[in-house]
Design goal:
Blueprint (H helix, E strand, L loop, with lengths): L2 H10 L4 E6 L1 H18 L6 E7 L3 H8 L7 E8 L12 E4 L9 E9 L3 H11 L5 E9 L12 E5 L22 E4 L2
Parallel strand pairs: 2-3, 2-5, 5-6, 6-7
Antiparallel strand pairs: 1-8, 3-4
Helix pairs in contact: 2-3
This protein binds 1-O-pyrophosphono-5-O-phosphono-alpha-D-ribofuranose.
Length: 187
């Protein structure tokens, strides 16, 4: 058994590993780069509000904000489209709507993965309607398979393979979110 397989089994309680797609160190390096790009993209006095799309973005958001060396604020959107399955149900339920005011502010929606694009297509318009100065999307992973993506992320960590991915916030039936890397379980 390899060290990666052993580590995966520790975190999952025995689930076999398909493969590690992005290691913790690869993710950390890319997130640091994204944080620097975001910090450099706005004027010094810009009023920035990051909206982390929960639950999937919670690990990415926590790492990302610590790499953006400038003033900003953080709030959350809680949405769910997958339930316990592996395919999007096609409709997105907004479970928590941020209380933070958005008018005149630079909004950055932080997403863990863009898959079918349903989540962004259904949520971004509602944010744009609140009269912000700008709306951008920062996604760690982008499968580039969304047929009609109306809101293209400005910042993307990795172009991801079209496989079921878990870890670093991504789940399967609520399991695996706590893995420090991104992996394919063996199916
Ligand atoms: C997942 C993931 C993204 C979204 C991407 O969230 O975290 O937010 O699906 O898929 P899409 O591009 O096909 O819409 P999910 O709805 O499973 O909720 P979660 O974040 O709580 O896991």
């Amino acid at each position: 058994m390899t060290a990666a397989e052993r580590e995966f089994e520790e975190y999952t309680g025995g689930e076999p590993l398909g493969r590690i797609v992005y290691s913790a160190s690869e993710i950390a390096a890319r997130v640091a780069g994204m944080g620097a790009e975001i910090a450099a993209a706005y004027p010094p006095d810009a009023d920035i509000l990051l909206l982390g799309l929960l639950k999937g973005s919670f690990v990415f958001l926590g790492d990302l904000v610590r790499q953006i060396r400038r003033p900003l604020q953080v709030d959350f959107l809680v949405a769910s489209s997958y339930g316990t399955g592996t395919k999007s149900s096609g409709s997105v339920e907004l479970l928590y709507d941020p209380r933070a005011p958005m008018a005149g502010r630079h909004i950055i929606i932080v997403e863990d993965i863009v898959d079918s694009g349903t989540t962004l297509n259904q949520l971004c318009g509602g944010i744009a309607d609140r009269d912000p100065a700008s709306v951008e999307i920062c996604a760690l992973l982008h499968k580039r398979i969304a047929p009609d993506l109306e809101w293209e992320p400005r910042w993307v960590g990795f172009d991801a393979p079209n496989e079921f991915l878990v870890g670093y916030g991504l789940d399967h039936g609520e399991d695996f979110r706590h893995l420090p890397f991104i992996a394919c379980p063996r199916t």
